[in-house]
Amino acid sequence: MLPAYTALLRDFAAHVGLDPGILAETQEVVMAGIAIGLAFEGDEHHGDLLYFADLGAPSPERALPVYKALLEANHFWVGTSGATLALQPDTGRVICCGSMAVAGADGADLAVRLDAFIDTLLFWQQYVSDTLPQTQASYLPAWPMLAGA
């Protein structure tokens, strides 16, 4: 694992008031009630910090419309703010993930990135679980595929 990744986690923890040792060990942070996993992908020279969360599974009767909306939202990331929505193999659970380069990043950068990510997570978690208020779905013109879904 790249030492800069561990340093980034520690700097983020200090920036947001978490215990740096615990965050480096667990590689998980909970925001707005959603557990966000953190992981390193790369080699000893460079890499990315991956962040991801499980948003649950749609009910069987809503599965196909939800899957269609996920695919449409992923198209040029128009409905995901740059994150990617996917289905976890064998479970049907929706996973949302994103990444950022470790090089040059600090704890404040990661905090800003995760703050934006949580907004995306909250929206899609409500959509997947069918608890999104209809007024909110129609309020988001960037995501027209959700209107009436």
Outline:
This protein is α+β, with helices and mostly antiparallel strands. It is built from five helices and five strands. It has a five-stranded antiparallel sheet with strand order 1-2-3-5-4.
Give an overview in words:
Helix content is 41%, strand content 22%. It is α+β, with helices and mostly antiparallel strands and 149 residues long. It has one domain (3-135): Yope Regulator, Chain: A, CATH 3.30.1460.10. A hairpin with a 4-residue loop joins β2 (34-42) and β3.
Class of secondary structure makeup: alpha+beta
Number of strands: 5
Amino-to-carboxy terminus distance: 43 Å
Average pLDDT metric? 89
| CATH fold call | Yope Regulator, Chain: A
Helix amount: 40-55%
| CATH architectural name | 2-Layer Sandwich
Largest sheet: 5 strands, antiparallel
Number of helices, where a helix is a run of at least 4 consecutive DSSP H or I residues: 5
- The largest sheet has its strands arranged as 1-2-3-5-4
Low-confidence stretches: 138-145
Kindly give the count of domains.
1
Q: From N to C, what is the helix and strand string? A: HHEEEHEEHH
- Radius of gyration based on Cα positions: 16 Å
In CATH's first tier, which class applies? Alpha Beta
Strand content: 15-25%
The gross shape turns out to be elongated
